[in-house]
Automatic annotation (TrEMBL):
Organism: Anaerobutyricum hallii
Enzyme class: hydrolase
GO biological process: defense response to virus; maintenance of CRISPR repeat elements
Keyword ATP-binding applies: no
Protein name per its UniProtKB record: CRISPR-associated endonuclease Cas1
Keyword DNA-binding applies: yes
Subunit structure: Homodimer, forms a heterotetramer with a Cas2 homodimer.
Role played: CRISPR (clustered regularly interspaced short palindromic repeat), is an adaptive immune system that provides protection against mobile genetic elements (viruses, transposable elements and conjugative plasmids). CRISPR clusters contain spacers, sequences complementary to antecedent mobile elements, and target invading nucleic acids. CRISPR clusters are transcribed and processed into CRISPR RNA (crRNA). Acts as a dsDNA endonuclease. Involved in the integration of spacer DNA into the CRISPR cassette.
UniProt cross-references to InterPro entries, sorted A to Z: Cas1, CRISPR-assoc_Cas1, CRISPR-assoc_Cas1_C, CRISPR-assoc_Cas1_N
Residues holding Mn(2+): E156, H221, E236
């Protein structure tokens, strides 16, 4: 299966027989079998023909729309996978002991994964960030003593501050940053993180949808208008593993440079340009296709993309059983 990324303005995506065609503004053309297409992501001002839209809806191929700077607008989706009975159970478990138990498991795994990723980079830089690692461990320990979601989120936020403080010391000098900045991203590092998290959320959203769950009925993140809170819940354990490690690898591996970014007169912040975007998307796609043995309940390697799907399956099972212990978050080594 393949994902189609369109990051050029003026492209037209259509259908010719059993192939998806792309015609670019400069006259270049390409195509790929529609049967192999898992999803389409359009970044910028391109368009799809009505015939292609209909084919995507019939086949359940989601189409996501982003700005050139990575701001997520929305998606075209089929209603063929909705499971009403499962969604009723999902909704009924909101704000219950199930939510608290699930949140503890996810945030514990997130903090642990952040610690492992940070340790890898501090080792590569010859650093010893013992105090930061200690505080991440303290946050993990406190999570399991929490009695409410806000408390859990509070310790998750504290852990994130320590984690990014550590990462800031491991990033090559030209890309130094002072912590997370979101809307807008105020430096190149945050620009890559924000775009990567948007793409990761889209990946998780697709898997939630195909399992018949409602992406907007979260357990840990509180209800928010127009925000898919369940996707936010499930992407937490993957952020450091997939996005943060990809960004760090590109920067410290000198695969991307400061001149791959730009500022805009009409939009505050720093954003990745066309050439840098292409390199970043390719790197992120390779990461998602990488096979790993991080899931405790299977004894064989699967790609990160397949692992996300299996985790959504685990959540569906936990919801059906009304028992959060059936959900085993991913923990890297």
């Amino acid at each position: 299966m393949s994902l189609l990324y369109i990051n050029e303005n003026g492209a037209v995506i259509g259908i010719d027989g059993c192939r998806c065609t792309i015609k670019y503004a400069d006259g270049m053309k390409r195509s790929l079998p529609i049967e192999s297409l898992e999803a389409i992501t359009i970044m910028g001002k391109s368009q799809m023909t009505t015939q292609c839209t209909e084919e995507c809806l019939k086949r359940g191929i989601p189409v996501s729309y982003f700005s050139k700077g990575g701001v997520y607008f929305g998606r075209l989706q089929s209603t063929g996978h909705i499971n009403v009975a499962r969604q009723r159970k999902q909704c009924a478990l909101y704000d219950t002991e199930f939510s608290i138990k699930l949140a503890k498991r996810i945030i514990d795994a997130k903090l642990r994964n952040q610690s492992v990723v940070l340790r890898r980079y501090e080792k590569s830089k010859g650093l010893q960030l013992d105090e930061i690692q200690k505080m991440l461990s303290v946050c993990r320990a406190k999570v399991f003593r929490c009695d409410s979601i806000p408390e859990i989120i509070g310790y998750e936020g504290q852990g994130a501050k320590y984690y990014f403080k550590g990462l800031a010391q491991c990033v090559d000098k030209p890309f130094q940053f002072k912590g997370r900045s979101r809307r807008p991203p105020l430096d190149e590092f945050n620009s890559m993180l924000s775009l990567g998290y948007s793409i990761l959320m889209n990946e998780v959203y697709c898997k939630i949808e195909t399992k018949g769950l409602n992406p907007y009925f979260g357990f840990m993140h509180r209800d928010a208008e127009k925000h898919p809170t369940l996707a936010s819940d499930l992407m937490e354990e993957w952020r450091a593993i997939i996005v943060d490690s990809t960004v760090m690898s590109m920067i410290n591996g000198h695969e991307i440079a400061l001149d791959d970014f730009t500022t805009r007169l009409d939009e505050p912040g720093i954003y990745i340009q066309k050439n840098g975007l292409k390199k970043y998307l390719n790197k992120l796609e390779k990461k998602l296709q990488t096979s790993v043995k991080y899931l405790s309940y299977i004894d064989y390697a699967v790609s990160f993309r397949k692992a996300i799907q299996l985790q959504v399956n685990q959540l569906a099972k936990a919801i059906e059983m009304e028992d959060a212990s059936f959900y085993e978050p991913v923990r890297i080594r």
